[in-house]
Amino acid sequence: DSGVTQTPKHLITATGQRVTLRCSPRSGDLSVYWYQQSLDQGLQFLIQYYNGEERAKGNILERFSAQQFPDLHSELNLSSLELGDSALYFCASSPRTNTGELFFGEGSRLTVL
Amino acid sequence: GNSVTQMEGPVTLSEEAFLTINCTYTATGYPSLFWYVQYPGEGLQLLLKATKADDKGSNKGFEATYRKETTSFHLEKGSVQVSDSAVYFCALSKGRGGSEKLVFGKGTKLTVNP
């Protein structure tokens, strides 16, 4: 158990819909990262937050947005969903900067039909 | 930009066989290098890391040496077990501006048969 909690574990929805994925980082960790894992693209970095502020942005679509709340949990919002958004979405946390050591949750599997 | 290339899988071995999974990287400066492992149905977890040239990371019988001259960080294990069956990811981090986001390779699936 990494200490990072993600909900929901599985989600099935239709094209055009909007979903919210939630992540609770390890106790005391200030950084939260979101990654998308798909068969064709592998693991893609989406976005990082540090203590409520956006710190780095990767290959995140404009239809996607995220935020980190004062209690440090984070949410990833995916809207106008397309079939190609079906993937496993991982959240990870890290207590310090510049270490590269991340602690991953078990992921949220999104299926868009 | 920064990138990681690792050998395509899947890799299938018999128990007690020797394992090598190749990983090379492209990055400016001196990245930190990592191997992460993903067991079925779980998230990724750090297996080992090296932060400077010639460092050797090791854990659970796995080893990898940071080779700057060949820009490589190959993963090795002398005798694999069925429980090592998983997907292995090589990754690098540059940690610019306080961001330690990882850049991952595509992963190599390992299956170890009894």
The gross shape of chain B turns out to be globular
State the secondary-structure class of chain B. mainly beta
Task: Estimate what percentage of residues of chain B fall within beta strands.
Answer: over 45%
Q: What structural category characterises the helix and strand content of chain A?
A: mainly beta
Determine the N-to-C terminus distance of chain A.
31 Å
Report the end-to-end length of chain B measured between terminal Cα atoms. 41 Å
Q: What pair of chains forms the biggest interface?
A: A-B, 26 and 25 residues
Radius of gyration of chain A over alpha carbons? 13 Å
Question: Can you tell me about this structure?
Answer:
The complex is a heterodimer of chains A (113) and B (114). With 113 residues, chain A is mainly β. Chain A is 0% helix and 53% strand. In chain A, the strands form two sheets. In chain A, strands 2, 4, 5, 6, 9, 10 and 11 form a seven-stranded mixed β-sheet that branches. In chain A, a hairpin with a 5-residue loop joins strand 7 and strand 8. The mean pLDDT of chain A is 92. Chain B is an all-beta fold. In chain B, the strands form three sheets. In chain B, strands 2, 5, 6, 10, 11 and 12 form a six-stranded mixed β-sheet that branches. Chain B has strands spanning 3-6, 11-14, 19-21, 23-26, 32-38, 44-50, 56-59, 62-65, 75-77, 86-93, 102-104, 108-113. Chain A binds chain B through residues 2, 4, 31, 33, 42-43, 45, 48, 50, 55-56, 58, 90, 92, 94, 97-107, and chain B through 32, 34, 41-46, 49, 89, 91-93, 95, 97-107.
In a nutshell, what does this entry contain?
The complex is a heterodimer of chains A (113) and B (114). Chain A is an all-beta fold and 113 residues long.
